[in-house]
Structures are given as structure tokens and as C-alpha cells.
Amino acid sequence: MTNEGGGQRESRPRLLKEMSDLMRTRHYALRTEEAHCDWVRRYVKFYGMRSRADLADGAVKVERFLTHLAVEGQVAPSTQNQAFNALLFLYREVLRQPFESVKALRAKESKRLPVVMTEEEIRRVLTSMSGTCQLVCKILYGSGLRVMEALRLRVKDIDLAMRQITVRQGKGDKDRWTTMGTNLIDPLQEHLNRVKAQHERDLRDGFGTVYLPHALARKYPGAEREWGWQWVFPSRDVSTDPRTGVRRRHHMADATVNRAIKTAVARTGITKRVTSHTFRHSFATHLLARGTDIRTIQSLLGHKDVATTMIYTHVLRQGGEGVRSPLDDL
């Protein structure tokens, strides 16, 4: 919890403040910090803990808590893993009480194929959108980005001449390059012209700074005001940074994009469960259908293991492993 100035409320438990401070020194993302603290809060509430002494015997307690999530809570495997990572960080890094292993009952993992839209469905959804959200979704589909990778793009990451996008600190803290559609060049240039005009107005109004990772603002004084470091998709309003209390313009919220997608899909009548990630899945599947080799797609998507990318080969198998239905011969 934070107050209006962005600082920590005095009533916040000291344990959570220590955890937040440590995660910030390790450069964890704000969302990761919030998720970890939330799981620790739920863990403490589950046992009714009132002091640090109650946190003893971590391995046994974490094991029971994770089993509860799987059996009673019926959470997804990824949710259980998130809880485990949060508690592992708590005991190992904050409390300095590491445990070797936890033998909790694991949540049942379901094997699901990704939802993919046809090219015609992509066209219908994009046509039903407009403005900045449409431009973001065109990048998701045209470049295979995750929604937060798109929203965290800086101006210097867009190379219109080379038709190339650089993704900085993607999943796994890795950088990569990916392609960009030729028909995006003019709309992106027009969009950047508007963003630059807004940035210049912010500078005149006493704002115009942008968040820089890993203390780059101290290393390169003035960089936070430079055009190249600005967000490609800045938010509409100036807000208070929850970590520093500085008032500035952050990047656009992913919830805004997701709402626009939901509205557009409903307008088209498409019954598939379409999210921002569906555009990324469609990007990979359509490239594969056009003969792009799997290793190239793996590189463009930023997958660590090619086995992750291979899921799209299953999507391409029409009608049950590519088998022709006998009904078609009647």
C-alpha cells in the first residue's frame, strides 16, 4: 500500500517493507514485487501469524500452504509456482532461513493448445479497433510481442528504416530483435510525431521525465528527458510513480488494451476467447504456415527452448492430427 505521495504507509508491516526494499535493490519489476508481497500476506493470514517467530519451520509450513492451494484452492500450476517463488524469496533472501525442498502436492497441469485467430479474424478485429489500441495490437500481431513488451517500448527501440523492433529486458531479462510490418511505418511515424509534441508540452509544463531502469538516471543525467528514452505508448495522464513519488507520464496500461480487444471481439461476433496474447500466438502460427523455420520463430518470440515454440506445429494440424475425416468422402 502507498500513500498519495508514493511513499510507504507507516502501518505497512515491516516484513513486507523489508521484502519490497530488497526486491527494489535487485531491480525486480513492480508487478513481481506486488505479487510476491501479496502471497506473503496471504501466507501469514493463512496461519494467523503475529510475529517473526511464527515463521519458523518454513519448509513444513510452505509445503502445507502450497498443498492447500492445489487441493482446496484448485489453483493453476503457474499460480502455485508463483506462490512458491514468493515464499522461497521470503525465506531465502529476507529471513535468511533457506530450505532445501518442499514436497507439496502439485497442482494438476492441463495441456492446452493456444487460441489462434485466422487472418480474416485478425483483420476483422483490427478493423473494429481504432487509435492507439489498434496500433498496439498491430504490433502484437505483426511482431509477435507480449503486450507488456509492446507497452514498454522506448522511442529508440523502434527502427523504422530497418523495419525492426528491439525488445529490451523481455521475459527472462533478455533482449531480442523482431520484425515489423511495412504497413506500420507510416502509422507509427504519425503516432510518434504526436507523442513527441506531447513530450515537448510536458517539458514546458515542468514534467517530461521518464522512468529509467537500474539507476540510469544517475549515470546519465538528463537522459530521462531525452526523446529517445520516452515511451512509445505513454499514458494519457501524468501520475505519481509509486516507488519514487515523482509525478510523470508512465506508459499506457495493459488493461486499456485488453478492454479495447474485448470490445472489438464482441463487436465482430467471434466466439473464440481472444486476449492480447492471442495476437502473439497468431503471429507464430501464421509464420509457420508460410514456411518460416521453427528456429527463426523461436528467436523472434524470445523462447528459451524450441520445445516451447513447437506447440504451434500442433495448432497447424487440422482436424485431429491432420487425419482426413471419413465424412468428407460421402
Q: What does this protein structure show overall?
A:
This protein is mainly alpha-helical and 330 residues long. The chain folds into two domains: 14-94, Tyrosine recombinase, N-terminal domain (DNA polymerase, domain 1), CATH 1.10.150.130; 119-312, Intergrase catalytic core (hpI Integrase, Chain A, Orthogonal Bundle). It has helices at residues 14-25, 30-47, 58-71, 77-94, 119-127, 131-143, 147-151, 185-204, 216-219, 254-268, 276-289, 294-301, 306-309, 311-315; strands spanning 158-159, 164-167, 176-179, 239-240, 247-248. β4 (239-240) and β5 (247-248) form a beta hairpin. α6 (131-143) runs parallel beside α11 (276-289). It is globular and about 60 Å long. The chain starts with 13 loop residues before the first helix and ends in a 15-residue tail after the last helix.
